[in-house]
Amino acid sequence: IIVLLLIFLAIFAPWLAPYDPYATDPRFDLEPPSRAHWFGTDTFGSDILSRVLYGARLDLMIAFGAVGIALIIGTLLGAIAGYWEGVLGDIIMRVVELLQAFPSFILALAIAGALGPSFKNLIIAIAMTNVPIYAHLMRVSIMANKQNDYAMAARALGASPLRILGKHLLPNSLAPIFIQSTLQPGYAILTAAGLSFIGLGVRIPEPEWGLMVAMGSSRIISGEWWVSLFPGLFIMIA
Predict the structure, then answer these.
(1) Helical ranges in the chain per DSSP H
(2) For the whole model, what pTM was predicted?
(3) Chain segment 117-168, per-residue pLDDT in tens
(4) 223 to each of 30, 98, 171, 197, how far by Cα in Å?
């Protein structure tokens, strides 16, 4: 229900947002929540509610994009490593384990820092941190399923390795991959928010939740709590 609600807000943001999320008006900067601006305004006089709604669109695109890329790459690498367990499989898994040796946020920070802050690079950085998860799951699943009777029968009938892998093993090995993929978007949103908070994600004026929290964090001690509170709540919910 929560995910569907966020997707609804993202899809219908242009109709639900009361203002242009990119519009600025210095005359109304740092206004507290009111009837005119339900979530208040930020440093540039932009409506925070509008930016939060459009932020749902941006952050969900980052989350689903990163998870989708990681799922595809990790599944392919894991399937190859699981079916060809020799030298090729060992090389693939050593590279995967090298990625996994780093804490995920530190690895994402390093990749984002090397590529530079942008929407596309943020997706790539988060995707690369998730590849090892899917690669390990798929490798174990392929190794177990290739010993089943249907795989051995296909091999005995002369089916090629690619046919056995693509037609018989992959379809029967995807269940744990899909289960894992339902857990990852939330972590992807958290990582995206963290990278944007420290300046390695998307840039101003994009309405990204982590960036909005960063813009308001210095204002908390002076009393403008609403600037970072509302995007922070949406990060927590997501």
Answers:
(1) 2-11, 13-16, 48-83, 87-100, 104-115, 119-145, 149-156, 161-163, 175-197, 209-217, 226-237
(2) 0.88
(3) 889 999 999 999 999 999 999 999 998 888 888 888 888 888 888 888 888 8
(4) 10, 45, 55, 20
